[in-house]
Structures are given as structure tokens and as C-alpha cells.
Design a protein that fits this description.
The protein is mainly beta. The chain is built from no helices and 31 strands. The strands form six sheets. Strands 2, 6, 7, 8, 10, 14, 15 and 17 form an eight-stranded mixed beta sheet that branches. Strands 1, 5, 9, 11, 12, 13 and 16 form a seven-stranded mixed beta sheet that branches.
């Protein structure tokens, strides 16, 4: 089994309701996750373990093939462990696969035609986006590994699905569908895995802020109801990495050093209209380091008008006293629970109107051309001849 690292992007559990902490947390700053299942090996005891990693679950469906169940009903342990030399009558159910004395592990299972036995196996992962931005275009890769040959004439399929509730599933399509043709016999390999099929593609789905996201892999006979003479198949080396959305362009920006201690920071504006929509307003869209200080970036997409800013903890009962701005320039603010202070960031010259001769081209900090520099230029921070200037 090759060790590919896996970056995952997110699943969360409903544990009949979900237990706290069950899930893989992603943020815009840490938008990858990995799992190679090697933690399912106890090095001290030199033995495989049954416990699934945090945020992962597994189940066997006993009703019919090609059925995807629910994350909340799935188990946190596999039923068996092993891998090399699996016989044709190996136990059906969920497995921790790997070499008998190997720390390189994978999870999957074996189906059967025996009454009351396993008809297919599902592996689940649960993620939560705890940030304030969408995580989208999920770059996902994993290996489908084969630990026993299977002569069922229908062959076998591993299909990935995604969901936002862990119960209702959408197929991830052919890019995440692995079909295996039948073998001439049903039996194991001396060295495992006997076959490794890498899968890598982009899933066009979004992890929304504060919303759970689930993945599932259904291991099943490809067609019909006969699940006997099954292959032993597993998932390994899963990797997920999400893309962050581009920062929206705006006429101006509000840069905030956040010293509120709030769990989340929202910004509402009233005055010449509700500039950021209804309460609690907008969340920050980016983070910038300026002069050694970390700033959260809010949009000020207006050209004129007077507004009263109210920083709040995203409608959870706390807010900061109003701070009045005119929407004709960028603002740099320090915000604490006691109030708002305007700043001149380190490295930005606080001068009048003499950085360059009138007529030089001035640009906003986002790179948009502001027009010629001159005495009529509105207050704000500009780039002129490659340098930053504050026009007060």
C-alpha cells in the first residue's frame, strides 16, 4: 500500500445526534485534511485495531446492494482485521485491511450472498467548515485497494457520494466511480494490496460556513442482487483540499485589528441605508498582514454616504459602540469590546498632498485606478509611484 497523504474537506456527525467533536474541522486558513488509516495499527501490541479515525464511520448494509445509509447510524469500529491470503470464505462485513504485520492500513469490507449477511459496505467521513468563507472546488484523491479477488460475473464498483446532512446523498459522478471487472477466481493475495487504483478529481461542491459536509464510499456488486464471490475492497490514502473563493472587489475596504475576543465578528451599518444588509450585517472576507499587524478585511462597496458601523459577535448578544464613517476611502480600525479606534498602519506615510506632482496616477490598494493625483483627491490611502500615501 503506497502512502499517499489525504487532504479531506469535511464531514460531521448526527450521532442520533452527533457527539461533540465528532468530525473533521476545516477553516479557510486550514482547508485540507488527510487520512491514511495507519492509526488503526497498535505499534506497541503489533496488532491492528478496530476503531475508526475521528470523523470516520463504517457500516454494512444487509438489505440490498448499492444502498447508502446514514452517517449517524454507522459504526465507529470495524468488525474484523486482516489482509494477506484471505480465503474465499472469509467473513463478510467491515474490515481493517493490511499486511498481517504491517502498519499500512486501509478500511473497507466484503459482501456475501448468505442470508442475513452483508450486501454492500459504506465508508463515511464527516467535515465541518468552522470559518466564515465557503470552501469550494474540492480536490479529492484516494486509492481503491483490492485485498481479495472476486469472481462474481457482475464485477464490483466503488462509488463516492456527498451530502450536507449525512442521510440524503448525491453521486459524485464518474470521476469518483471505480469499476472492477470480475476475476477468474475468488481468493486472496500473498502480498497486499493485490491491486491499487488511484482516484483523483475535483468535486464541484461547496462546504458552506457552519454547515456540515459528508462523503461516502459505497462498495458494492455492480449490478443485480447477488453479492457473493465478492472482492475485498478498501479505501486508503484519502486527500482533500478545498479552494477558497476570490476576495470580492469593492470601492473601498475596512481593515480591522480584532481585539474584541468575540467568537465571530460581524459588521452592520446604518445611516444612508443598510449598507451591509439586515442585522448582523456582513462577515469579513479576507485577512491581511500590514506593518506586522493582522487585519480582518470587510467590504465598503459604496462611493459616498455616511454610515454608523456596529461591530457585533454575529447576533449573539454583544456589540461595540457605533463608529461613523464616510464611504469615500479605506479605513484601518482597531476594534475592542470597549470601542473603535482609527489607525494609520505602520509603513504607510501619513502626509498631506505632496507625495508626487499633481497629475501622477493614483491607485486604490486593491489595484484599481483612482485617477490623477491632485488637490481634489478624496481622503484615503493610495498608491502613487509605487508608494503608499494617506490623504487626510
Amino acid at each position: 500500500m503506497k502512502k499517499l497523504s489525504i487532504m479531506l474537506a469535511a464531514a460531521f456527525c448526527l450521532l442520533c445526534q452527533a457527539k461533540a467533536g465528532d468530525g473533521i474541522t476545516l477553516t479557510p486558513a486550514n482547508n485540507t485534511a488527510t487520512e491514511n488509516f495507519d492509526g488503526m495499527w497498535d505499534a506497541t501490541a503489533s496488532a491492528a485495531t478496530l476503531n475508526m479515525p475521528d470523523g470516520w464511520r463504517i457500516e454494512r448494509q444487509m438489505g440490498a446492494p448499492r444502498m447508502v445509509g446514514s452517517y449517524s447510524a454507522a459504526a465507529t469500529e470495524v468488525m474484523y482485521s486482516g489482509g494477506a491470503g484471505l480465503p474465499g470464505n472469509a467473513k463478510n462485513g467491515t474490515w481493517n485491511f493490511g499486511a498481517d504485520n504491517g502498519a499500512d492500513r486501509a478500511v473497507g469490507g466484503i459482501s456475501t450472498g448468505v442470508a442475513g449477511g452483508t450486501r454492500c459496505v459504506n465508508i463515511y467521513a464527516h467535515f465541518t467548515n468552522s470559518g466564515r468563507k465557503d470552501i469550494g472546488k474540492l480536490h479529492i484523491s484516494y486509492d481503491v485497494e483490492k485485498y481479495r479477488m472476486g469472481s462474481n460475473p457482475a464485477g464490483f464498483t466503488v462509488q463516492m457520494y456527498h451530502s450536507t446532512d449525512g442521510r440524503n446523498w448525491t453521486s459524485a459522478g464518474n470521476d469518483f466511480c471505480t469499476r472492477l471487472a470480475p476475476d477468474a477466481t475468488t481468493g486472496g493475495y500473498d502480498e497486499v494490496p493485490g491491486q491499487t487504483i488511484p482516484v483523483s478529481a475535483v468535486l464541484d461542491a461547496r462546504m458552506q460556513p457552519g454547515v456540515d459536509f459528508f462523503l461516502a464510499w459505497n462498495i458494492t456488486v455492480s449490478s443485480g442482487d447477488a453479492a457473493n464471490n465478492a472482492m475485498a475492497l478498501a479505501i486508503d490514502n484519502f486527500r482533500l483540499c478545498g479552494e477558497l473563493p476570490a476576495v470580492p472587489t469593492a470601492k473601498h475596504y475596512i481593515y480591522v485589528i480584532d481585539e474584541t475576543g468575540f467568537d465571530a465578528l460581524g459588521l452592520y451599518a446604518w445611516g444612508d441605508g443598510e449598507l451591509f444588509g439586515a442585522w448582523p450585517g456582513q462577515g469579513w472576507v479576507d485577512e491581511k498582514t500590514i506593518g506586522g499587524d493582522a487585519y480582518k478585511v470587510f467590504l465598503l462597496d459604496a462611493d459616498g454616504g455616511t454610515y454608523n458601523l456596529i461591530f457585533n459577535n454575529w447576533n449573539n448578544g454583544k456589540q461595540v459602540a457605533d463608529f461613523t464613517v464616510t464611504a469615500n476611502r479605506d479605513y484601518y480600525l482597531r476594534v475592542s469590546a470597549s470601542g473603535v479606534t482609527e489607525l494609520t498602519p505602520a509603513g504607510i506615510a501619513a502626509i498631506g498632498l505632496q507625495p508626487a506632482a499633481d497629475g501622477s496616477h493614483a491607485y486604490y490598494l486593491n489595484g484599481r485606478k483612482a485617477g490623477p493625483w491632485g488637490s481634489g483627491r478624496a481622503k484615503g490611502i493610495y498608491i502613487v509611484n509605487g508608494k503608499k500615501y494617506v490623504n487626510k
